[in-house]
Amino acid sequence: MRIVVLVSGTGSNLQAVIDAVAVGDLKLEIAAVGADRPGTYGVERAAAAGYETFLVNFRDYAVRADWNRALTEKVASYAPDVVLSSGFMRIVDEHFIDSFVGRYINTHPALLPSFPGAHGVRDALAYGVKITGCTVHIADAGVDTGPILAQAAVEVLDGDTEESLHERIKVQERRLLIETLRQLSTMGVPSLPQR
Questions:
Q1: Is the pLDDT of residue 23 over 50?
Q2: I want to staple 172 with a disulfide (CB 3.0 to 4.6 A). Which of 17, 65, 152, 191 is the partner?
Q3: Structural contact between residues 9 and 40, judged by C-beta atoms closer than 8 angstroms
Q4: Which 3 state secondary structure label does DSSP give 99?
């Protein structure tokens, strides 16, 4: 299974994938790692591990649709079986989704469908839930919607801050992502109806 990984930040989930591939725990090929902005640590991690990297800078495009088309073309050039959004903080449009329908995988730090969006951990704390967690799902044109592949629960502790809770969620998110990618690499990506 060939994957392209998209990052916007530090790439801690990406590092877990790189490490699992390096020790033979995950049998897949990382074709490339791309970012939407320059200077991401995730791209630096990938380059240090010897993987090809690319940048499709969101700020280089006056029209969002043009950026989406450029990103779609760049990702497609690697012929991935799966595209992994690993802390990729840009919403892609339907052209991108249609190009990789059923193959665009996302991680989210909440138990979807609860607390979608960029602030899932903060929103869970504000709501007062006692259990939150993380989700790996097939992304569609919505915000943190699409078929759920796997979830893991994380208890909210008394005195938790957004940072402390998010760190515990990230531990489970990395484990869940590796398990999900392992299953996909052996069983394949589930077939979804074409849009």
A1: yes
A2: 152
A3: yes
A4: helix
State the average pLDDT over residues 100-114. Answer: 96
Q: How far apart are CA 195 and CA 193, in angstroms?
A: 6
| DSSP secondary structure letter of residue 156 | P
Contacts 24+ apart (CB under 8 A), 88-95: 88/6, 88/7, 88/8, 88/36, 89/8, 89/9, 89/36, 89/118, 90/8, 90/36, 90/58, 91/143, 92/68, 92/139, 93/64, 93/65, 93/68, 93/141, 94/141, 94/195, 95/65, 95/68, 95/69
- To the question of pTM greater than 0.85 for the whole model, the response is yes
69 has pLDDT over 70: yes
Residue 82 CA to residue 24 CA, distance in Å, equals 19
Beta strand 53-55 with 82-85 is: unpaired
Amino acid (one-letter) located at 190: P
Give the residue numbers annotated as catalytic, written as ranges: 108
Peptide bond into 113 cis (omega under 30): yes
Tens digit of pLDDT for each residue in 143-191? 889 999 999 999 999 999 999 999 999 999 999 999 999 999 988 766 5
